[in-house]
Every structure is written in C-alpha cells, then in structure tokens.
Give the backbone structure.
Amino acid sequence: MDLYSPLKKFFGFNKFKGLQEEVVKSIVSGNNTFVIMPTGGGKSLCYQLPALMQEGTAIVVSPLIALMKNQVDAIRGISENNGVAHVLNSSLNKTEVSQVKEDITNGITKLLYVAPESLIKEEYVAFLRTQKISFVAIDEAHCISEWGHDFRPEYRNLKHIIKAIDNVPVICLTATATEKVQEDILKTLGIVDANRFKASFNRPNLFYEVRPKTKEVEKDIIRFVKQRNGKSGIIYCLSRKKVEEIAQVLQVNGINAVPYHAGLDAKTRAKHQDMFLMEDCDVVVATIAFGMGIDKPDVRYVIHHDIPKSLESYYQETGRAGRDDGEGYCLAFYAYKDIEKLEKFMASKPVAEQEIGHALLQEVVGYAETSMNRRKYLLHYFGEDFDVKNGDGADMDDNSRNPKKRHEAKEDVKLLLSIVKDTLQKYKAKEIVNTIIGKENALLTSHKTHFQPFFGIGKEKSASYWMALIRQVLVVNLIKKEIEQYGVIKLTAKGAEYIENPTSFFMTEDHSYNEDDDNSIITNVKSSSAVSDEKLVKLLKDLRKKVATKQGVPPFAVFQDPSIDDMALKYPISLEELSKVHGVGEGKSRKFGKDFVKLIASYVDENDVLRPDDLIVKSTGLNSGLKLFIIQNTDKKLPLEDISKSKGLEISELIKEMEAIIFSGTKLDINYALDDLLDEDQQEEIYDYFMEAETDSIQDALDEFDGDYDDEELRLMRIKFINEVAN
C-alpha cells in the first residue's frame, strides 16, 4: 500500500513521524484503531490522510469548536475546493447547513467535523445514514471515560449513534490515557478489538520536583521565579481567589505577572494570553483553564501552588514546559491537607463519582510522597516502563539527585505479597495495610479478616511505611491494580514467584510533608545554562529586544538564546571576540555586535569580572573549505541537489551546513532554489510567519502550518529569512 505519494501530494511531507505510518495503514485497512499520542506527536494527520485517500466522508467528533475551525481551515488550505472539509455545529444557519449536505452528497467533502451534541440530532443522523461514510474518528477520546480528566457525558452515547449511521471502523485519539481510561473508552464504544498504538509519554528534558508546602510558600515561589529572571513560567492554582492573590504578591515583588481565570472577561483573558506570548510579561498565574490554546515553546517552568486532582491533569499541565526541548522545570508544592480539602469538595457529588475522585487523588498522593524516581512513577501510571539507570532523563528529578536512605526489605515484601494472597486478592491498598497493622474496619469485619492468624502481623511498622512499600512493589510489577474493580490489588505472576523465591529488594522510605518537618529535601537544581552569568544574560536579552524592535525583527533573528548564553560565559569585549561566540560569526558580529560588546565591556568593568584568558571557540561542525564551496556554488545558482551530490551529502546535511553559515552571520542567497520549490504566495506566508514568531523553532512552524509545508521547505525559508533580516 503506497502511503508516501498521498502524503507528499496532500501534505507535502516526504516521511511520517513516529507511529503515524502504522496508524494510517490500520485505518486504511478498515480496522478499528486506538491512538495515544502526547501533544505535538501529529495526531490529526493520522485520520486526515486516510480520509483524503478514501472514498466517502469521514466524520470527526471533536469537543471544541475552536479546534474544529482550525483543522477545517488547515485542510481547506491543501485543497482547491473549500468543500473538502466542513464543520456541522450549532453555529451554522440553514443555508450553510444545506451547503454542507450538498457537498457531502456530491462526494466533495472528505472530512466532516461535528460536536457530539450535533451528532445526536435526528435530522443529521437520518441524512448521514444515506451517505457513504468512510470511518468515524473521535478526537480527545478521554472525554468518553468518567475516569478521564475531561469527562463529557454526551460522549458516552456515541456507540449507538455511530451504529445508527453505518457500520464503519472507529478511530479514537487522545493525548493522555491510563490503562483504566483506555479500557473504558474501548468498552463504551464497543471496539475492544481495536488495533492499539501508543507513543512514549517520556519528556526527558523536564525536571520534576515536589517541595513541602509551608506557610512560606509564597516566599519560596518568589525566590524561585527571581532566580529565573526573564524566563517564561506558568503558576497553577486551584481557585480564582488564589490566582488573584499570588499574581498580586508577585507584582508587588517586582515580578511581571498577570492573572488568568474564567472569572475575567474574555477581552482581559485574551490580552493576558497575548502578553505572555509576546513576552510582555514573564509569568501567568492561572487556573487550569489556561494553556489549552497556548503553544509557547519556551515556557521554562511550571509551578503547582496547589496539587492537581489527578496525575493526568498534572502530566498535561507540566507538559506545557520545555516544548522546544530546552530546559523545563516542574515544581509542585504539596501538603496533605490540600488533598483533604479536595476530598471535602467531592462530598456533594454522587457516590460513584466520589469513588473515582478518591482513587485518582490517591495516585497524586503516591506521586507526591514517593521517594523513588518520579519519572518512573509517572510513566508507570501511564502503563509505560522506564529504565532508571539508562533511560532518557533518568536523573531529572529531586529524588534521583538527592536519594533518600534505602534499606533491605526482602522479608517485608514477602509478607506483603503473602497477605495479598491470603486475603484472596479482593482488597484495595488501604484494606491490605489495615490487615497488616491490625486495624479493624467494617469491610474487614464483614469478611472475618480480623479473626485470621496474620491479622496485625506487621503492626510494629506504621501504616505509611506499608503504603510506601505497596507503591514501590506496584511499580516493579510484583502486584497490579485491577482495572475492572479499580484499585483492588492482585498478584502478578512475577509476584507469586517472588513469594516462593524472594530476592533482595531495596526500599526507600517516603517523604513526609508535614509543616513542621525540616525542609532538608528542598533542592535547587541549576538550569542547563547555569554556567553563564544570569544577570548579564538578562541585560543582553533586554538589549536584544530593544535592537529587535528597532530593526522590526523578532529577537531570535538578532542572536539566538545559545549565543546570548555563550556571551555571558565568555564576556567578549571586541567585535573579533564576539565573532567567536557560538552561532555569531563575523557578519552578525559586524551587523549587531557594537552595542553588545559595549554593554559587556562596561558590565565587566563595573563588576570586576575576571574574563577567561582565551575564548574557547565552539566548532560549528563545519570546515572552512566546505563553507567556501557552498557559498561559491550558491552564488553561481547551482541546484542544491548538485551541490550536495558533489560533496556526497544528503540534502538535509547540506541544509544543516547552510544553517551554520547563515547563523554565524555570513550572507547566503538561495532565492533561486526557493523559487523552484515554492510560489510567491507560499514564500510570503512562511516569511510573515517567521516575522511574527516567538522563536525560530522548525517544530513550531511545522505545527503552525499543520502539514502545509515540510521540514526542508521551512528550513530553507528560515535561511532566506535570517539572510534578509539579520545578516
């Protein structure tokens, strides 16, 4: 099955990303398909491409009108006919609805985006029943499950509506889902036979830390933010009142912060969001309503003033940090009384909902109190295994940097597993602990467990000790939580084997986060650029913003962040020295350098800075012979294919070498090559994008254009852009 020519034809890409190819194959072959891909993994292409390739119309169920509109616009952008994609929701009038129906009947519409509420309407169902439907795609599928973090009751009925329309394959997509949520989705939709695809949830550049929440929490936050002056961050609070309080405290302390919550009017919300995107403020203090539409790549930290209600919310919110693969610090403040407060809020809800809420909260408690590798704990929650020795990002959390004491717990593990077995694997963690420490409650009494000889066998150790052990034994897969009766602990085959042949098991004791504890676990991890002078970095970035505004270009077009960091490490005070800084070069040094070396020279003077004797020159991985060859041959307007072939390079390698030339400030005219590749309007569109963009990240540009241009086209346009505005 050739998927590459349609991929190139419709989206202009030469290759698929991650799991996309296998997913598309599954859908085109007519199979029910389930896709879990973290944000930014390219989910939408998974169903857009099959829909464009196949006969008939694909129905896409999506919860947010704004998201539907963006996707429809993107698909219309790759087709001559606007009717290729339509929205069917409450915002349409009668004429528009009949236009949509006409386009579907005539076989023009390939993708029909609907909200679940619209799909229930009898007139729509009756109409769609008469049409050729290729498949149904359900986006944000976690909304189906009451165990998901964004449950929508109207999603529960989708199975019957789909059956009423046609017996077609169903494709579900979501960005976060635990095994419990996955099972719930597949069962509710009646597609337990679906092919399942799951991308990794690991974000190796994020650093995770939990600190005790004391009366000094506001001071801690101010100190943390001030150490990261000029960097963008988000602070999450659970209530609007707390958002306003924290934003004010930060403002009074000279931090440029704005509040964001649903109680503000739409205009203020939009203004605050734009200020954050345009770097007119450093910090947004927000309720979880913030961030849905935010795709700022350089958020450097996410702070949770209040612990969230589920680990899925936590994962989504922390995931807004470090989208550009740069530094991302995730700091949560935790006190058990916050959990108790959340439990009180739940008391008014139906019993079933309360049970779900309690189970989700216990997972959060486990994460916050654990002293094992936090990344391993988090990924285990999403059903993914993590190697704490060699895994990507293995030491990126407070527990790994400051390990607590460990002790041999082989006998305790054996005892714990035996109790799970002897109580017939029907208890949740709390009951197992009560059995071990000999604490009676109604459930244990009804099963007559309190008469058993093993009741109270481990009472010399505390309940929290045994709870911590359960969590650690769970993560290494000696026990598992039952999915059907969620939370009931079962032995795995590995656990049953352990009872017979116990081996060494080192346990670390959980943190205790009581207010009167000493704060010895507070850590302060230096950021990746800790070697450079933070105060100077701030001054240089301010100057960069001024220069950029004056020239009418984005700040990254003057100097990129790595260059600024390098200046604050090497303190160049002449243009010649500046040209040796990472990513600067002679051209750039001459064009923008004067004000920067002047600033650095007076800074060095005022602060008695000892400058390094000789500047370490970082290699750009480019030998000067090749550099000269590329410059001469692009001057002669030779096709890029010919230039790369004659040096035995791939086109992507040639582009990399050209980027090194251009970023160091040397001019390179490749307009002739771009004219063969993109027409005038396309070039203008990409050029304007870079002019307005926050960052020159190619990944961000790919996401923004959602398939309109491929990696190569955007890289070449970035070269043209930097050449014209910066060099």
